[in-house]
């Protein structure tokens, strides 16, 4: 694989006396949308936090061939943007004020707000469909609109790589589609790399180009979205039987779960 987004070599994470990630070696492709999936507690969000330099770990994580722990914080923030799960901000903060904060990694405390900063903020608002909502308070927005405002904030960092931790949590299906359509359209139009944690298998195979399936802190499977999530992988990772169909509109796989595997209870 050429030009990887990240290269992981023997990465391990231990929290509270328990191993969360076990000796992971993995290459994540650049210029694609990669979905990290897995059951609750599998380590998928820990993996994303590791890529964001928010997690102590063993082993090495390389970006453009350099260990990420050695990259200056400002330079890393200009290159990699993170949207954590369920971010919060005051309800009366306007959309423009929130989005403008994404310029912080590019400005020192003494820098004046510039015409270039203004242009980048306006472009981010337009790219996320919020151009006419800049003066609205966050508390007046729908869940999908708020999430798009947070995505606009990450865009004003002008990153080449975007990390999203379960960006569709707490959203209904219409808003989930809205957010993921926005993210994937931005990835294609800007040539960005997007790595996101998703808990919905259907959304993962519909919107991602690449899949990483995590099971008990290990990589259970990874590869193209069209072929990686086989019924056997889904059975191993999620404990359910399923059928794989083809979406007649998109041509993408459609996962149809039809029963959970039976468990044997102790007498």
TrEMBL record:
Keyword ATP-binding: yes
Entry keywords, A to Z: ATP-binding, Cell membrane, Ion transport, Iron, Iron transport, Membrane, Nucleotide-binding, Transport
Pfam families on file: ABC_tran (PF00005)
SUPFAM superfamilies reported in the protein's UniProt record: P-loop containing nucleoside triphosphate hydrolases
GO terms assigned for molecular function: ATP binding
Membrane-topology annotation of the record: Peripheral membrane protein
Residue ranges occupied by any ABC transporter domain in the UniProt entry: 6-241
PROSITE patterns, A to Z: ABC_TRANSPORTER_1, ABC_TRANSPORTER_2
Keyword ATP-binding annotated: yes
Compartment(s) of residence: Cell membrane
Gene3D superfamilies in alphabetical order: P-loop containing nucleotide triphosphate hydrolases
Protein name stated in the entry: ABC transporter ATP-binding protein
Organism in which the protein naturally occurs: Brevibacterium ammoniilyticum
């Amino acid at each position: 694989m050429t030009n990887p987004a990240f290269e992981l070599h023997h990465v391990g994470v231990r929290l509270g006396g328990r191993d969360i990630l076990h000796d992971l070696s993995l290459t994540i492709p650049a210029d694609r949308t990669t979905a990290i999936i897995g059951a609750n507690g599998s380590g998928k969000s820990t993996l994303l936090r590791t890529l964001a330099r928010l997690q102590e770990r063993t082993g090495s994580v390389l970006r453009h061939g350099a260990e990420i722990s050695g990259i200056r914080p400002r330079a890393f923030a200009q290159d990699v943007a993170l949207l954590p799960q369920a971010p919060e901000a005051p309800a009366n903060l306007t959309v423009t004020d929130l989005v403008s904060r994404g310029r912080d990694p590019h400005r020192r405390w003494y820098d004046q707000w510039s015409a270039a900063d203004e242009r980048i903020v306006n472009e981010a608002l337009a790219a996320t469909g919020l151009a006419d909502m800049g003066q609205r308070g966050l508390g007046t927005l729908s869940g999908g609109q708020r999430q798009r405002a947070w995505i606009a904030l990450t865009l004003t960092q002008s990153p080449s790589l975007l990390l999203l931790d379960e960006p569709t949590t707490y959203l209904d299906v219409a808003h989930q589609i809205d957010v993921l359509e926005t993210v994937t359209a931005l990835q294609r139009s800007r040539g960005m790399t997007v790595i996101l944690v998703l808990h919905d298998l259907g959304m993962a195979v519909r919107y991602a180009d690449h899949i990483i399936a995590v099971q008990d802190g290990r990589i259970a499977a990874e590869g193209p979205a069209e072929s990686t999530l086989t019924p056997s992988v889904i059975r191993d990772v999620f404990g359910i039987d399923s059928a794989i169909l083809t979406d007649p509109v998109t041509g993408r796989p459609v996962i149809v779960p039809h029963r959970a595997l039976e468990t044997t209870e102790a007498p």
